[in-house]
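TICKET #2291
ISSUE: user wants both folds in one file
ATTACHMENT 1:
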Amino acid sequence: MGDVRFRMDPAGARALLGSRAAADMVGGYAGRCAAACNAEASPDDMRNEPFGSSAKAGGARARASVFTASTHGFNHNAKNDTILRNL
């Protein structure tokens, strides 16, 4: 077998990083992180999820974030660094 070479031009890299598929991939990672954070936190009395996630495509690259969705999540994250430990 011969060597296979692959070379991506800058336009192709931009299109790949800003694509919906890339947003779905990083959104999946963020969703799993938020689920792990929710499993670690005790249930909220108001029945709200303590942590949430979001993802969006566009611009230079796809972005995802994990955030505190309630006061309970905010307090749990401030005390235990829950989001940082579950990355």
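ATTACHMENT 2:
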Amino acid sequence: MSENDNAALKLGDDKFDEMMLFLKTPINQQNHLDYRFGDSELRELQEGIWAMPAYLVDDDPYSLFFLFTTIDSGEMVVAFAEGTRQDKQLRLGQPLTTGAGLNSLFAQQEKRAQRVLKFLNDISRADEAEWHQIVS
């Protein structure tokens, strides 16, 4: 979130759940490495859906993944999905809005949520994405 857009909203606010980051250019094979977070890089799960860990620690049952995905309007957004471990496999849950995913992480790992928000704000400040409030 930029300082002048919905300045009253902050991590942990219920209204922040309604925020979604829309990319101006979809992720593809040519640009996916431009969106690295820490040591993680995007991997294509299926056409139009890219994922990478936002928070994944071996001894913590909670995990959260970025989902760069195309929605029904044809636009690509940054969503999140929580991970669950089952039989040494990691499964992703239902997609969450950008804000809801950040709030979920904020409730578990406040400092990590702030780092993830900074990463997303850097994308927005580079004019590669825009924050929008959505109505569910």
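RESOLUTION: both attachments delivered.
EXTRA DETAIL ON ATTACHMENT 2: The chain has a mean pLDDT of 91.
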